[in-house]
Amino acid sequence: MLILGIDTSCDDTSVALLRNGKEILSNIVSSQVDLHAVFGGVVPEIASRKHLEFIDIILKEALREGNADPRDLDAISVTAGPGLIGSVLIGLCFAKGLAFSLQKPLIGVNHIEAHAMSIFLERDVDFPFIALVVSGGHTIILRIDEPCTYSVLGTTRDDAAGEAFDKIAKYLAIGYPGGRIIEEYSRKGRKDYVAFPRPMMDDNTCDFSFSGLKTAFVNYVKNNGISEGNMPDILASFQEAVIDVLFLKTFRAIKKTGITRVVVGGGVASNGRLREVFLERGRGEGLDVMFSSPEFCTDNGAMVAMLGYYYLQKGIVSPPDVKGFSRMSLR
């Protein structure tokens, strides 16, 4: 079974070919990081225009690398949301046109669910499991009971974790993407230099809030100053607070459900310190913690194709008028 996966949820244009839900024949990703770096974050209008400019080129490259003819496809899987709606609609409309012209099934998938299931590109995981998806646009905890069946246990009330990293980096004018740069600084810093708050730890939910933590960072810098000498310490303390909250809230979801298998995905899951904390603390709590490889943590068409494969296995396809969406329905 040959599935084409298309993802244009944010600023990466990606098309992939997947055989039988596992074998990656191609996974082409065109990044726009350099275009948005000057602005300190993604500019939606620029992102959607670049998707429109490159998506046909990326498709041809994916087919060429995968040595496949469009007529060989069994289905076309595409991100229908959540994401920047202008970007989402470029990929979705392109996929609709392609599916119609080839008379192939169309499968519109949830981008967050694809991140949660991306681990299956590399290994099998027993169900049920807890999935933490943490990226620039999303911070959410899911319970995955079986392929295509999930429920939301917790989500962010305001900023996503990756968004908080980007905004702090922009505030300090140290570059974009912020998470990667803050991680580099933090490697040389003291994690206990500043006692930043751990937001929403006194409630009984699995929800997150990073806006107040971001404000606490800005207020600290305004009141105490920051220099090249202490920047690694301050950023390491901020990063540690974010990661601490991510683990503690995920562990709360584990205690509520009794499920000890944990999968972590999304762009921020590439962070080395986050992986270290989850693996070390996870072992101490008797958890089985798993991460996707960094190449599958960031947005990619392979995870969209893989999820589409599972939906097709269940006979679930989308109507031609499937709608794109910018926010996830919290069901």
What does this protein look like?
The protein is of the alpha/beta class. The protein has 2 domains: 2-117 and 297-313, ATPase, nucleotide binding domain (Nucleotidyltransferase, domain 5, 2-Layer Sandwich), CATH 3.30.420.40; 124-291, ATPase, nucleotide binding domain (Nucleotidyltransferase, domain 5, 2-Layer Sandwich), CATH 3.30.420. It is built from 11 helices and 10 strands. Helix 4 crosses helix 11. The longest helix is centred in the last third of the chain and has 27 residues, at 231-257. The radius of gyration is 20 Å and the shape is globular. The mean pLDDT is 96.
Model regions low in confidence, pLDDT < 50 over at least 5 residues: none
Q: How many structural domains can be distinguished in the coordinates? A: 2
Category from helices, strands and their pairing = alpha/beta
Distance between the termini: 30 Å
Beta-strand percent range:
15-25%
Rg calculated over all Cα atoms: 20 Å
Largest beta-sheet characterization: 5 strands, mixed
Topology:
Elements: E1 2-7, E2 13-19, E3 23-30, H1 33-37, H2 44-65, E4 75-81, H3 85-102, E5 106-110, H4 111-117, E6 129-134, E7 139-146, E8 149-155, H5 161-172, H6 178-186, H7 211-224, H8 231-257, E9 261-265, H9 272-284, E10 288-291, H10 294-297, H11 301-313
Parallel strand pairs: 1-4, 4-5, 6-9, 9-10
Antiparallel strand pairs: 1-2, 2-3, 6-7, 7-8
Helix pairs in contact: 2-3, 4-11, 5-6, 5-7, 6-8, 8-9
Concise overview:
With 331 residues, the chain is of the alpha/beta class. The chain folds into two domains: 2-117 and 297-313, Nucleotidyltransferase, domain 5; 124-291, Nucleotidyltransferase, domain 5. It is 44% helix and 19% strand.
